[in-house]
Design a protein that fits this description.
Blueprint (H helix, E strand, L loop, with lengths): L2 E4 L3 H13 L4 E4 L2 H11 L3 E4 L8 H9 L6 E5 L4 H9 L4 E4 L4 H16 L5
Parallel strand pairs: 1-2, 1-3, 3-4, 4-5
């Protein structure tokens, strides 16, 4: 299984991809909301890193559609930093909401924490 990164900025997608690959994750990428839904249905990622401001379909709508039939963990990574956007994202079912600019190390730590919660405790 892999993590799906959805962002229309290719440089940001590459940065997040490299960060998560260095943390040991397989990564898929998509540049818009429609492609994200196709990848999510076809590949069943273990987590989705999702931008809000996407072409074709915004990240809030992608989240809404995913939540209609999936519990895949979702982390919003977006420039939209107003309180209302954060609240909407979390109310739609996101597991976390990180604003740009961001620390790649913090992002990797947040992904690890979400995956740990999603998969339950590991061996001690």
């Amino acid at each position: 299984m892999a993590i799906l990164i959805v962002d229309d900025d290719p440089r940001l997608r590459d940065l997040v991809r490299l960060t998560l690959e260095r943390a040991g994750h397989a990564v898929l990428t998509a540049a818009d909301g429609r492609a994200a839904l196709i990848h999510a249905a076809r590949e069943a990622p273990e987590l989705i890193v999702l931008d809000v401001g996407l072409p074709e379909m915004d990240g809030f709508e992608v989240c809404r559609r995913l939540r209609a039939n999936s519990d895949v963990p979702i982390l919003f990574l977006t420039a939209r930093d107003d309180e209302i956007d954060r609240v909407v994202g979390l109310e739609l079912g996101a597991d976390d909401y990180v604003t740009k600019p961001f620390s790649p190390r913090e992002l990797a730590a947040r992904v690890k924490a979400i995956l740990k919660r999603a998969t339950g405790p590991g061996p001690r």
